[in-house]
Amino acid sequence: MGQDPGFTVKPGELTAAGNNALTVAGKVPDETAKLAEPSATAAGSLAGWQSGAALTGCSSAWKTLLDGLSTDMKTAGANLITCAQGYQNADHLPPPGAAPVSDPFETKVVGVTGGHLTRDA
């Protein structure tokens, strides 16, 4: 089997997606507020009918749901931006290095030279 190529991250695209999510999330509360007046008017015209109360309840539930969605989108957008910043920061870190550790006892392993087994091992 071939080596797993893993995945590629483009921090700029993550940042753009996060900013888009924040922009859309910011518009949702204003848009849901616009639902209140037409819903109240429609429910008012149905005064005395069960459907009027149902419409009021439905409108309220939708507003609550959409406002919650807005909050979730803000959180997701902020998380995408944070992830992008993390990837950008990691790209600027020095490469990890494995410094050889000294052996204070100068241990010799029989049958191993230069990290490879020899014939007499």
UniProtKB/TrEMBL annotation:
Superkingdom classification of source = Bacteria
Name-wise, this protein is: Uncharacterized protein
